[in-house]
Amino acid sequence: MGKKMFVLIVILMSISLIGIIAVQLYWIDNAVKSKKQQFSNDVKISLIRVAERINEKEQDLIDRKIEGMIENIGLANAAQIKNYFFQEIDTTSKQTFSLGATYLEENFKLPVEEFLDNDSIILKRISGKKDFFQTKTFSGIDSKSTSEGLRTSFTKRYTNLEKEYNYETFRSLFEKKPINQRVSNRELNATIKDELNKKNIFLDFKYGVYGVDGLATKLKSGYYTIDKKDSYRHPLFFDSDNLPIHYLYVTFPTEDKHILSGISGILLLSLFFIFIIIIAFSSSLYQLIKQKKISEIKTDFINNMTHEFKTPIATINLAIDSIKNPKIIADQEKVIRYVNMIRDENKRMHTQVENVLRISRLEKNQLEISKETIDIHDIIEDAISHVHLLINDRGGSVETHFEALTPEIIGNEFHLTNVVVNMLENAIKYTEGAPKIDVYTESTNKFFIFKIKDEGIGMTKSVQKNVFDKFYREQKGNIHDVKGHGLGLAYVKEIVDKHHGTVFVESEKGKGSIFTVKLPLI
Predict the structure, then answer these.
(1) How far apart are CA 295 and CA 471, in angstroms?
(2) pTM for the full model?
(3) Where are the beta strands (DSSP E) in 140-281?
(4) Is 118:84 a contact under the CB 8 Å cutoff?
(5) What is Dmax (Cα atoms) for the chain?
(6) Tens digit of each residue's pLDDT (9 = 90 or more) over 261-278
(7) I need a surface site. Which of 9, 237, 319, 372 has the fewest CB within 10 A?
(8) Burial annotation 25-59 (CB, 10 A radius, 16+ → b, else e)
(9) Which pLDDT score, from 0 to 100, does residue 432 have?
(10) pLDDT digits (tens, 9 = 90+) for 86-119
(11) What is the spatial distance between Cα 130 and Cα 142, in angstroms, rounded to a whole number?
(12) What percent of the chain is helix, strand and coil (3-state, nearest 5)?
């Protein structure tokens, strides 16, 4: 896969993920807003009904008071008679319509100590009589006119007019009373709770009644303090001009929890799917990057392997061609030298192939590792002897610092020897000039620890993270400046893991590296 195509796929996947998450978050936000709006509407409707019930109850109380007073009323303190007359003449049909009305307004002055000391109010009782006349004129043959008429009379008491006037009179008195005398805290609290329950709102609430001037009244729950931002408001009482004189404020301390709990199932499910999408995207992206990296590493490995094989193959071909030469074939000493050369190069190629197969068998758990009690100090000494010639050839040295009190562990002698050899060869390979290597050992209550320190070229933090990966080799422009296939340290990691140990590296560019292996003691 080309770099541009890889970047394009990553960008498209990222845009898709961001789009999906944005849509989900937009839907969640809309759901929360819709739930809040529904809750707000239910609360406002409940407060409207609370105000209506409080005012209806007060109106019923006033009506009962008026009715009781008028029924037990005595003689009027004053009276007034009003007469009205209306007439309509239809010249076409020669009909006349007449209406006469007489109204009697009786005023009764009654004491109202309940509201104001030594004061009184005027109540009215209104009754009346209505007379209806209808006449029609007829012309005879002798041109004489005759008329006939219809008269209807009835009397009644105008209770509706009485109630309207008397109610307004009483209402003006009620407005002068303290609001806590018009409605009690207990009644207001019970009414609010009942109306909220009708809307399936069973939350704890706090309330307070304030005047239009913002002054608090005695109607409130506990130490309620007005919070206009988070409170719901509705007029509670009105004046004669139908303007609010008191406002009821209601606050719900657990409103947000209630709204979220209403959509918690869908919300959690949506968040769960968002999490799944993110995990799937991250995994896909990780695998994509990993596969791309493996592809690049394998390409480098093939190039390196090809390069490593080209030299021995060329040497073998050259040796064979030389042996075929009649002058050489007659010289037994030269033939033996060329045969040994062919054998060494063949052995070298076999070793390279065996390294690859060993790693493959380790990954597939096909490599059986038998374990026994071994002395790790002996293992390290044996490994140093394997690389002694390489070190001497470079003019280097290996110093041992054995300080471990308990060097015996359960392990495989062959593979652990290869582990130390690979780490020593790595130190030699990545040192410019004469390699200087120090091997330290120590032991704790549970682990045997050995460290291999070199003064080589070192490595960066990014390289340290990948140095134990299979086929990984640091790129330095010419990938063949240091021979190898990136299998040595991968093999070390696999073998140490098989022995339930750990291996890690500490390094600084240009100042060398320290490889540390911790293996469990017996």
Answers:
(1) 10
(2) 0.49
(3) 145-157, 206-211, 216-220, 232-238, 244-251
(4) no
(5) 181
(6) 777 787 788 888 888 888
(7) 372
(8) eeebeebbeebeeebeebbeebbebbbebbbeebe
(9) 86
(10) 888 877 777 888 888 888 887 777 666 555 555 6
(11) 37
(12) 50, 25, 25
